[in-house]
Amino acid sequence: MFNSYQETTLHYDQSRCINCGFCSSVCPHGVFLSGSEAAVLAKPESCMECGACALNCPVKAIHVQSGVGCAHAMIRAALTGSGVESCGCGGDEGDCCGK
Ligand code: SF4
Ligand code: SF4
Prior knowledge:
The protein has helices at about 20-25, 50-55, 70-80; strands spanning about 10, 30-35, 40, 60-65. By secondary structure, the chain is an alpha+beta fold. The protein has a domain at about 5-65: Alpha-Beta Plaits (2-Layer Sandwich). Strands 1-4 form a two-stranded antiparallel sheet. A two-stranded antiparallel ribbon has the order 2-3. The longest helix is centred in the C-terminal third of the chain and has 10 residues, at about 70-80. The radius of gyration is 13 Å and the shape is globular. It binds iron/sulfur cluster (2 copies).
């Protein structure tokens, strides 16, 4: 089965996490969830390498080499001028960012 976590550049060092919650708040695909003591990497296979989590992590616990992000959202934002940064899909099979 395809697992994008093995194909993408997302890496999470849970030992550095201070549980601020930023990554789960900004991730458009629910890759990170809040945990009791640290963020939980819940859906790594849904990462689209947008880079938002790493950009907002205050302790650099997350590293990702951001690529084009969600092409659907970028095209929609360009056409509508809405500034939308996420397509809003769940990243599941059949979604625009699905694998
Ligand atoms: S890079 Fe983007 S899609 Fe991937 S985990 Fe971070 S915020 Fe979520
Ligand atoms: S943004 Fe960084 S420090 Fe904050 S919960 Fe996520 S991994 Fe932990």
